[in-house]
Fold this sequence. Notes:
Elements: E1 2-3, E2 10-11, H1 21-25, H2 27-35, H3 38-54
Antiparallel strand pairs: 1-2
Amino acid sequence: MKVCTFCRRRYEKRELDPGDKRERAISIYFVxxxxxxxxxxxxxxxxxxxxxxxxxxxx
Length: 59
């Protein structure tokens, strides 16, 4: 059991999605993937995808 760093909910440890190359390519994805529950991580991922699309976040 882990505790989400954002909402403090408990969650089970997840396995890395082998199909999602972003999680390996961008280290912040991996760090956040390890520290957020599924719901918070989904929201974070959507936000970062939008920022990457705008070109404001460097890989």
